[in-house]
Amino acid sequence: VYGHPVVRAPHLARLAARGTLFENAYCAAPLCSPSRFAMLTGKLPSRIGAYDNATELPASVPTLLHHLRNAGYRTCLSGKMDFTGADQLHGYEERLTTDLSPSDFGWVPDWEHPTQVQPWFHTLHSVAEAGPCDHSLSLQYDEEACQQAVHWLHAAADRPDGRPFMLTLSIMHPHDPYQGPRRFWDLYQDAEIDPPAQGKRKAKDRNAVERRMWALYDRDEIPLSARQVRRARRAYYAMISYCDDVLGRLLQALEVSGLAGNTIVVVTADHGDMLGERGLWYKMTFYERAVRVPLLFAGPGIKPRRRIREAVSHLDLLPTLASLVGAQPGNAGLDGRDLAPALRGGALKPRDVIGEYMGEGYDAPVVMIRRGGRKFVHSVTDGPELYDLASDPQELRNLAAEPAHRGTVDALVREAEGRWDFPRIRADVIASQRQRRAIHAALTTGRIAPWDYAPRTDAAASYYRNYDSARPDPDRLLRRPRPAG
Q1: pTM (predicted TM-score)
Q2: Residue 38 pLDDT
């Protein structure tokens, strides 16, 4: 639905045909946890301390789920959210699975020693070992998350309390390691896989960001062949097709449960993947491949077959979903805007889209301003970048390096320095890193009390039981279609 000539995602295409698709949607941070926390709170990562993948989202920060519950909604999560710390719900009434990633402070970056390679850093093994997969940890996890979500939906259709619901299904795919589930790997052929439009550049031609990423996960330790790069991209396409299949299963559950006509479906992703473009992999940059994400709404009241080109943000999700269901987040100081009028067919005025990165690979905050057709990226360490996305979609011509654009760039730098207090943010990040490393060292010494979420199950309320004579026949309750009589 975004125009790729090779990738197959038929369920997403059918969903887009009855909904509204945003062509230029951006995550607030090109890293897993900060992106999700910004999604849930409608606030920029630096405002909630969501610096990296070992950050604790404060339990005192309201999320979309809190607002929905106050509006009478039942809220449920199946799959990964990477909550770190003691609060493993953040407004979700139910969680059906544990998390895929650890919930402790073990993955804290160290900006005071930015060149030190941590054991949990990415490497290029994911690319070198890419290929078809019959079973993997990620596949096992996503299958469990999908199955639990489908079961939950079937039960939701007949709950006696009559409350509306908000269900989040969050899966790992598509993500490194690049292991394409074989059924979907076989949908593609090596010959049809497009190579990176711009491959790895020589050391002398790399810009500051490319040098940082090289030092983070490359370092020329694992040489890659053109065949390995192609197989990694094929595996990623296979993973997208797998995700599309998961979406299809979820949509089918809505249909057979009679819920489809009254349910809004939202599809997005927490970040993208460079996938070999510019010789870069994974996320952690503000180039389009890493920071631009799919975003699609479909359901009652949503304008069908509509595509919106104006740039939008994950920060817009909370105010938009709250508006669609009549929830009142109040004066929450949100950084996003309500897209509901545009989803109903109204115009959407252009507005700046803001992003932040404060994770590994750097030693100072990096920020992004997408304004109109241009994207400005800046850090006090690496300096400014400015790209005209209309004429330079591969972001190869940094206008900030050209004298003709010096005035524009200087004005943007001053604007960024007024919007963000870079020295204070850097000090806050380093202080947080120190504290979390100290806590992790203490909590992994002696008796360990894990924060990892343990799903609650009640065997006495499962399948056929004799404890409640008033309980209706569970088979008749869940059978689709319902038996006659």
Answers
A1: 0.95
A2: 98
